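Self-study notes.
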Amino acid sequence: MDRALYLAMSGAKQDMHGLQLHANNLANVRTTGFRADLEQARSMQAFGEGMPSRVFTMTERAGQDFAQGAVMTTGRDLDVAVEGQGWLAVLDATGQESYTRAGHLKIDQTGLLQNSNGSLMVGENGGPIFIPLPVSKIEIGKDGTVSVRPQGAPADAMEVVDRIKMVRPDNSELFKDVDGLFKSKVPAQMFDADAEVTLLSGALEGSNVNAVGEMTSMIDLQRHFEMQVKLMKTAEEMDQASSSLLRLG
C-alpha cells in the first residue's frame, strides 16, 4: 500500500507546484514584457535500503515561453519595445547586470533612468544612465540612443546623453531569477551589446501569457490533484482492510 500512497503523495505535491506556477502566470497577464513560466518535472527512482521499487516526481527549474508578446502603441516618449529577439540590460537590486523586456521607463528624482520595476537601465559604458535634469524633451532612438533637450534650450538643441545597452544571447543561456529578471546561467557573466537589436519607441510589449490556456491548465491540474487525493484515501482504506484480515487470522 505504501507504494501507491508514496506515488500519489508525490504526484499531488507536483500538482500543487503546477497550480502555483500557472496562477502566477495568470496574475501577470497584463505585466509588461512578462515571459510565461513552464512547469517541468520528471520521474526519479528512490534509492535506499531494500529494493529500489519506489519512484517520485522531482521538480526541475521552470522553463520559460520566449514567444514575443503583443506590441501596443502608447505614444509615450519613455516607452520602448524590443523588436524581435533581444533584451534590455538593467541592474538588479544587488547591482548585477540582468535582462528584461519591460520597456516602460521613467526618470527618478536624481535623474537615473529606470524601468517601471525600479531596475536601473544600463548604458553602453556598463553603468546606469543619468539624465541631466531638468529636461523639456527626451527621445529614445531605434538604436537605443537617449537624447534630451535641456529645459529652456531651442527646439533643435537635442543632446545625446547615453545609449541603452541591448543584448541578444541565446535563450538557452538565460534563466529567470526570483526577482523576475533574466540572468546568465554562468555566474557574473555579462553579455556584449549587440548593435543589431533595435527598439520601437512609443510602444510596449505586453505579456505573452495566454489567459485561456492558463485557466485550462489550472482546471486540469485541480482535477488531477483530486484524483491523487482519492488514490491516497483508497490506499488508506486498503491498508485498514489488510490489517483487519491479519487480526482475523
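Second protein, same conventions, sequence then structure:
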Amino acid sequence: MVELKTDASIDAMYETGQVVAQALTAVRKAADVGVSLLELDEMAKEVLNAAGATSPFLGYRPTFAPTPFPAVICASVNDAIVHGIPNGYRLRDGDLVSIDCGAHLGGWAGDSAISFVVGAARPADTRLIETAERALAAGIEAAVVGNRMGDIAHAIGTVCRGAGYGIMEDYGGHGIGRRMHEDPPVPNEGRPGRGMPLRHGMVLAIEPMLIAGGGDAYRTDPDGWTLRTTDGSRAAHTEHTVAITQAGPRVLTARD
C-alpha cells in the first residue's frame, strides 16, 4: 500500500533528508587516500548522533541477508555496486567509491547516495559518475503529478542505455516514509506512460545503479551483502529522496 504524505509530513521528511545530506557531505570531504572505510562510517555516525538521528541501515536485516547490516553507511568500492560493508580497507588513489546513507529522525526516514573518485580520476570513471548523476536528474524531472512510474523508469533507463552502461538487474528505488523501504518499487528501466500514476504526497527514493561494462548481472560476496559486477567493471550509484508535489519534485536530500 502506498501512503500519501501530507505537506507537513513532507516538511518533516525534509529535515531528516538534510541530516542524510550532511552526513554524505562530511563523508565525501573526509574521503582521501589512506582513509579507511570504517573511518568514513564513524564520520557519518557522528553526524547522525549530533542531529539526534538514528540509522535505518544499522541492524537492518532483510530476508536475503545472513546477518544484520553492521554499519550506518554502505561503502562500495570500484566493482562493488551497492551494499558494501565498511571495513579496514584504506582508500587508494583512483578508487571509485559509492556511499549510501540513511537516517531516521522524528519518525521519518531519509535515504541518499553519492559516487566519487578519490584522488586522480580516470576519464572513464568521471563519465560513469556523470552519467549516473544525469540519470538521477532525469528520473527526478519525470517525478511529477500526472506522470506514471514508467515515466521515471524510462527517463533513467534512456540515459543509462544511451551511454552504453548496464543497469543492475532486480534492483531499483523504492517508496520511503516511516520506514526506509515502502511501496511502491521504482524501476530503473521501463516504458513511458505505464505503471502507477504519480500523485501529490508520494515520496520516492530514486536510485540509478550503473555498471560500466554494459551488462546487468551481479554477484554476491561471501558476506551476503556486497553486490559486485560479474565482469569486474566499475559501478556508480546515486540516489535522492524525492517528494512528488503539485509544485513539482522536491528533493528532500538535496546537498549544498
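Instructor comment on the second fold: The mean pLDDT is 98.
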